[in-house]
Amino acid sequence: MPFRFADPQADALPLHLVDSATLADWLATQPETVSAWVEANGFTGAIGEALILPGEAGKPSAALAGYGTFKARRRSRFALAAAAPRLGARTYRIASGLPPEAAAEEALGWLLATYRFTRYAGSEAAAPALIAPEGVDAARIEILAEAEALTRDLVNTPASDMGPQELEEAARALATEFGAAIEVTSGAALKENFPMIHAVGRASPRAPRLIDLRWGSEGPAITLVGKGVCFDTGGLNIKPGSSMGLMKKDMGGAANVLGLARAIMALGLKMRLRVLIPAVENAVSGDAFRPQDILTSRKGLTVEINNTDAEGRLVLADALALADEETPELIVSMATLTGAARVAVGPDLAPFYTDDEPLAAALSLAGTDAADPLWRMPFWEPYEAKIEPGIADLDNAPAGGMAGSITAALFLRRFVTESPRYVHFDIYAWNPAPAPARPKGGVGQGPRAILGALSQVFEL
């Protein structure tokens, strides 16, 4: 479905955002009939409340959306989006109550709240439409919403219909839409040039591959690397059923970089964009890679396999090594990499790692501005010894279980040695419970913040 604002000339119902702390003051400015109607319907202005006000001949004259309190809004992103589904399939124009500094966030939330995943069941239900608030960049917000929808669709699609081939097809469709070049390495060439990607994916009948998309001819070189493990059984260290149930989302890093790439290309940002996606299925068969195997990576570093369920960092490592060979100004990796990150910050926050202080500051600020919250984590040097097993250069799964997200990030950093800036995101890519503008299911984490940081750091 298109994520678009309504025609500014459309017939629209005035929509008032009412803060619960100032509801009484607002009612004091209204006719007695309005005050009586609002009180009779128990409208308090809480986030998520909505009420249509009657006019002449029973026709609606306006609508109210609860905007909570300042404290409540701090605890809930996209407050307006909480009310949108309760307003009915009309067109609305915000008449009052929207702080100018919140207009872009609330407008984006409205569009994101119209997302539905209907590939297998249901239909596109009519949704309330909004005329873009004054002062916002409506075209940019629409692009951000469409990019997020792409990410959600990819993550929500089950592995039966989203294997390495289908992920490649999604990248090819994006390349065709925006005139990007794309190359895919598979078969013998993958085994020779990207041995760890091949090792992880070789047990599956769905062939592993490396997807390489390029777009743009001027500006800074930015390379995005996304983990594309389309399903993760855990390999021979097989996951229990309770842990395997959500593994269709293990390609969430790939889905996020494709959504981010879509936004970059649709916005026409001046950069030389490259997207690398190692696409594999970590399956179980007689050809599966084994615990205690030692793999030699594209970069030449050897890796002892101490857990075949720590496969994401292996496929990312080969892709990062390729990215680093061109020394782009920035490499970004995104992956649903560790459960440790979820334990540390939960599903809402996207932890990131970088040694670049200006980039870290730009990301943190942009995350707040774009309602795309991040949390910086440390590349903690004293833990380097944990990923050095002695028998090989690196250990893919250090014993002990502590600092799992940090040691995974340190592992990946070993494969970026030439490029001046590197940032790694250990994301969840899944919303476990419905929230305003974020239904249960696949979700983007980090792309809007990255866009904002790119604009600041590289003056795009």
TrEMBL record:
Residues 307-314 form the Cytosol aminopeptidase domain. The keyword Protease applies. Keywords: Aminopeptidase, Hydrolase, Manganese, Protease. It comes from Salipiger thiooxidans. One of its GO terms (biological process) is proteolysis. InterPro entries: Leucine_aapep/pepB, Macro_dom-like, Peptidase_M17_C, Peptidase_M17_N_1. It holds the Pfam family Peptidase_M17. GO terms for cellular component: cytoplasm. The keyword Transport does not apply. This is Leucyl aminopeptidase. One of its GO terms (molecular function) is manganese ion binding. Belongs to the peptidase M17 family. It comes from the Bacteria. SUPFAM superfamilies: Macro domain-like, Zn-dependent exopeptidases.
